[in-house]
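Render this sequence as a predicted structure.
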Amino acid sequence: MNNNINHPAVFAKGFIQVFFIVINTYMVSCGSLFGVFITSFGTSLIWSMNVKSIAAGNYVTRLVYASGAAIGSVAGFASGALIIQVLDLVFNF
């Protein structure tokens, strides 16, 4: 077992990953091509950095990652509407 695991970093990885996925889904549903592009790029970039470290982790590490992902999904859902409002205000979508 690896005792050098940085659980706050693992939590943040899960949070950010799913945050971007949920916002991407929201952008798709609103038809925001710019938002879809940015969030798809972010999701892929983050995923490429996460996959190896989480797959090699133990059960506790995976639970921490999943907890971050769950909270990230709620935060992404709550942020989606706000982001669309700002984009609409700034870019008149």
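Summary. The first helix runs from residue 7 to 30. DSSP finds three helices and no strands in the chain.
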